[in-house]
Amino acid sequence: MARGDAPRDSYHLVGISFFILGLGTLLPWNFFITAIPYFQARLAGASNSTTRILSTNHTGPEDAFNFNNWVTLLSQLPLLLFTLLNSFLYQCVPEMVRILGSLLAILLLFALTAALVKVDMSPGPFFSITMASVCFINCDLASSLKGAVLQGSLFGQLGTMPSTYSTLFLSGQGLAGIFAALAMLLSMASGMDAQTSALGYFITPCVGILMSIMCYLSLPHLKFARYYLANKPSQAQAQELETKAELLQSDENRIPNSPQKVALTLDLDLEKEPESEPDEPQKPGKPSVFVVFQKIWLTALCLVLVFTVTLSVFPAITAMVTSSTSPGKWSQFFNPICCFLLFNIMDWLGRSLTSYFLWPDEDSRLLPLLVCLRFLFVPLFMLCHVPQRSRLPTLFPQDAYFITFMLLFAISNGYLVSLTMCLAPRQVLPHEREVAGALMTFFLALGLSCGASLSFLFKALL
Q1: Could you tell me which of 159, 165, 168 has the C-alpha nearest to residue 271?
Q2: Half-sphere exposure of residue 258, counting CA atoms within 13 Å on the CB side?
Q3: Architecture label for domain 284-462
Q4: What confidence score (pLDDT) does residue 256 get?
Q5: DSSP secondary structure string, 184-224?
Q6: Is 374 within 8 Å of 305 (Cβ atoms)?
Q7: Which of 6, 40, 410, 448 could form a disulfide bond with 343, CB atoms 3.0-4.6 angstroms apart?
Q8: pLDDT tens-digit profile of 369-390?
Q9: Considering the chain, what is the average pLDDT of its residues?
C-alpha cells in the first residue's frame, strides 16, 4: 500500500506502463517461434504469392534448414553470453542508453523481418538474414532485460515502488506468449491473403515494442512514478520498508509463499539486521561465489534440467506434431492452439501456483525426483503424430494424447521454474542473495542453451 503523502496513480497509468513494458520485452521471442509455419514455407522455396503463411495445415514442406532448432539455439546462446558480459560491462553504459538503445534495435530488426515478407528471396539468404536477426534481437533483449534484472534497471526501479507494480510487470511478461499465440490465430482466421496476413502478424510486435518505448519515456512525466523513481533515497527506502512490512504482516512465521515475498523477506531481514543485533560486525564481506554455489547447487541443477527438457522438445519437436484427423479447420488450427497457446496458458498458470504454496521445500529430495521425471516428456512427444519421421514409430497418434502431454508438460515447467527461483534465496544468508540471484540467472540461461542444443539430436532421432 502507498503512504498517505504519496501521489495517486491517476487512471493507473504507471501500472499500465509497467504491464506493457513486461509484455513488450518478451514479445520478440514468442512471435518468432509461433511463426514457424511461415518460416518453414519460405525456406522450402515457396513464393510469397502462393505460400499459405500462418495458415498451413502442418503437413507441408519438410524443415530442411532445421529452422525451429536454430531459432531456439540462436535465441538462447546470446542470453547465456550476455548474462556473463553484463556483469562486467553494465557500469560502462548508462541505464537509459542500455534499455532504450536495446529496445530501439529490437524494433528496427523486427521491422526488417516484417519488410522481408514483401521481398522475394531464395531460401539460403533468407535463412541467413533471419538467423542474424534472431541472434541480434536476443543480444539486445539480453542486454536490456537481463542486465536490468541483475544490475537494477527496470527491476531496480520497481523495487522502490509498491509490490503491485512488480506483479504487473511479471504478469505482462507471462502473458507475452499468450498474446503471440492469439495474434497468430487471428492472422489465420482473418481470411486475408497470405502476404497481408503475415505482414500484419509481424507488425504487431513492432507496435508492442514501440508502446514499450513510449511507456518507458513517459514514466518521468508521471507524478506517481517521479515520487518513487526520483533520487530521494531516504523517502524511497522508508516507503519500500513500509510496503514490505505490510506484505509480511499476515505471515506469522515469516515464511514467504511467493517469488516476490521471498525477496521481500530477505530485504527486510537485511535492513533490520543492524537494529536488532547492534553488537555484531557491521556488514559481512563480499560473499564468495563458490560458497553460495555450494548452498544452492542442487536447486540450480534442477533449474538447468527443467529448461533442458523444455527447450529440447519445445518448439523443435512439438511444432511438428499434427492432428490425426482428416484435413479441415481443426487440422489447420490444431498445432497453434494445442502447442503454442496451450503451452503458454498452462505455463503461466504453473508459475502462478507458487503464489499460494511452495512444495516441495528446499530441504526435500522430492524436487530432484520431480525434475527428473520430466525427462519422460521427451520420448512421449517424439512418439506422437509427427509425419516427418524415418526411425521411431508413432505410438500416440490420437490428438488427445498430445493435448494431455502438453498440459502436464507446460504446467510442470512453469511451476518448477518458479519454485526453484523461489527456493534459491531461502538457502543463503541475506547478504548472499544477490550472488545467488546472479548464479540462478546464469544457470537458467545454461539450461535454455543445453535444451536448444539437444533439440538437434532429438529431431535427428525421429
Answers
A1: 159
A2: 15
A3: Up-down Bundle (1.20)
A4: 38
A5: HHHHHHS---HHHHHHHHHHHHHHHHHHHHHHHHHGGGSHH
A6: yes
A7: 410
A8: 999 999 999 999 999 999 888 8
A9: 77
- Residue spans of the domains in the chain: they are 10-230, 284-462
Instruction: Quote the DSSP letter at residue 287.
Output: P
Residue whose grid cell is 555450494: 294
**SS3 label, residue 396:** strand
Residue 384's DSSP bridge partners are: 396
pTM of the model: 0.76
The answer, yes or no, to whether residue 152 has pLDDT greater than 50, is no
Q: Is 254 left (phi over 0), alpha (psi -120 to 50) or beta?
A: left
Chain centroid to Cα 75, Å, comes to 11
Measure the CA–CA gap between 33 and 141, rounded to whole angstroms.
Answer: 16
Per-residue burial over 299-327, b if 16 or more Cβ lie within 10 Å, else e, is bbebbbbbbbbbbbbbbbbbbbbbbbeee
From CA 14, how far away is CA 173, in angstroms rounded? 16
User: Do the first three CATH levels of 10-230 and 284-462 match, i.e. the same topology?
Assistant: yes
Q: CB within 8 A of 394, min separation 6: which ones?
A: 383, 384, 385, 386
Q: Which residues pair with 241 in a beta bridge?
A: none
Is CATH 3.30.70 the classification given to domain 10-230? no
Task: Name residue, grid cell 505460400.
Answer: 51
C-alpha cell at 330: 481443426
- pLDDT at site 355: 79
Q: Grid coordinates standing for 26?
A: 518478451
- pLDDT classification of 284: cutoffs 50, 70, 90: low
**What is the distance of C-alpha 390 from the center of its chain?**
33
SS3 384: strand
Which has the minimum average pLDDT: 1-5, 75-79, 83-87, 315-319?
1-5
Residues 6 or more apart in contact with residue 166 via CB below 8 angstroms:
155, 158, 159, 260
